[in-house]
Amino acid sequence: MTTARANVHGTAIVLGTRGFLITGPSGIGKSSLALACIAAAREAGQFAALIADDRVDLTLEHDRIVARCPPSIHGLIEIRGAGIGTIDTVPAAVIDWAILPVHAPFNPRLPPEDETLSLPLGRALPIVRVPVENGTPVLAVLRALLAEKLGF
């Protein structure tokens, strides 16, 4: 049996028991959002870690989407305008959601219902849009939008 594989542009993180693929065009704030989420979760006493930044290896295993980091960028995260930093990582995690960072003005004001991110694995992830304006409490946004699905 051949495992479906793909390398995608994005950032993958774990918050609590859930995996997230942060997606969007270059420069939208994927790495900054990942750092903010990880810091906020840790400050709240929850587990949080980076899987991969910029490029994410995805596989389909036992009908679940699993993210891993390409070896050449393991433990590294881009801090735009400042350089490349290092951060604690996990080797792999199941991905449950896609996060799409969004900036004002929000048009449309509300996202489409049941929005999904199609993956080259022949699968899709549900999308949650997260505003990335200065001072937005990103973990509070995720908790409000995903409630019991977040796991903490």
Short description:
The protein has 152 residues and is of the alpha+beta class. The chain has helices at 30-43, 138-146, and strands spanning 5-15, 18-22, 48-61, 64-68, 76-79, 83-86, 92-94, 97-102, 116-118, 124-131.
3D architecture notes:
It is a single chain. The longest helix has 14 residues, at 30-43. Strand 5 and strand 6 (83-86) form a beta hairpin. The chain has an 8-stranded mixed sheet. Helices cover 15% and strands 41% of the residues. It has 2 helices and 10 strands. The chain is α+β, with helices and mostly antiparallel strands and 152 residues long. The model has no long low-confidence stretch (mean pLDDT 90).
* Global mean pLDDT: 90
Tally of strands: 10
Residues in helix, %: 10-25%
How many helix segments?
A: 2
For the termini, the CA-CA separation is: 36 Å
Poorly predicted runs are none
Shape: globular
Major sheet details: 8 strands, mixed
Provide the structure class: alpha+beta
Over the alpha carbons, how many angstroms does the gyration radius reach? Answer: 15 Å
What portion of the residues fall into strands of 2 or more residues?
A: 35-45%
Order of helices and strands: EEHEEEEEEEEH
Spatial sequence of strands, sheet with the most strands? 7-4-3-1-2-8-10-9
